[in-house]
Amino acid sequence: MTKDYSVFLPPRNAGAPIQRQPTVLETLGWQPFFSQQVSADELSRTPPVRIVEIHRSALHVVGDNVDRTIVPIEGAAVGDWIMLNPERPGASRILARKSLIKRRAPGTDRRLQLIAANIETIFVVSSCNQDFNIARLERYIAIAFEADIAPVIVLTKSDLVDETDNYLAKAQAISDLVPVVALDARGDEPKTKLGPWCKPGQTVAFLGSSGVGKSTLTNALAGSDAIATQPIREDDAKGRHTTTRRQLHLIPGGCVVLDTPGMRELQLTDAALGIDTVFADLHALASHCRFKDCQHVSEPGCAVLEAIELGDIEEARLTRWRKLKAEEAFNNTSLAERRSKDKEFGKMVRRIKKAKFDQGDAS
Q1: Which intervals hold domain EngC GTPase (predicted)?
Q2: Which end of the chain has fewer CB atoms < 10 Å from its terminal CB, N or C?
Q3: Distance of alpha carbon 345 from alpha carbon 341, whole angstroms
Q4: Which domain holds residue 80?
């Protein structure tokens, strides 16, 4: 019997709501954005599946009556949709992404690391304790803005402090565009307070340090204890790694959740717009400086420095803005140099192969 794939294609009358149960693919996050990239013929030959987990030597993909591991696909990320080639899984096509979270890889290796794809909302999670760090929150939010993903700050362990107003005020001051939610990660609060962003078919991600409650929040949304959790250390409020790899979890009757390990290092790259959005006040002030290339250090006519003198802007905020912009520019240059060297190396390999082929042909 030929399977009917028409429900996965864009509806002819997009304005009329469809009263039906969501398909398996739709519960996994399949949307018109993806169906517009494929034809009915391609759907029948290569069914769409979503990458829910990446192992060292395999991908775990899930779709309609599909739940299997396949060989790695170059350039694939958790959350990607691919058109699964049954005969040659490694040649499966990756569909264009709605969004992509990325960073410069940790350490000295100058390469780009893909974190996750096709996310609608990023919950930036921080605890109401020593883990709370404005600069770290700004980094995560800049990544979200750059990827065109809606960021939400989630303050956990609010039940362990007498007063959360101070943490709320500091988090709310980061950006007028970012909602802030304080909650106890255990119990019903995550479902009620995060519910508006966790509708069926949506994909959300919890990002933050180890031990802030990311896995606990995922368990709370799912109403189970399927994901292992560990408490933070009492001496310094630092967490232990519980989640060891990025993985998508389907919440019954709800959204798809990306649970991630705590990231100790989050180097920004290709995030200029995201940084300027987080620091929209400073970016706007900079446009009024006398010199277009003003560095906001000691230049005459600097509108940013004038705002600091008047007490309208904290100097620490300017310092964090400068640091992120300098880091982003440096990483962009480093990655560009790495790509250039890789390109030259590839050319050299092709020349060597061609020379060997020519020698063999001549003999």
Answers
A1: 117-264
A2: N
A3: 6
A4: 24-94
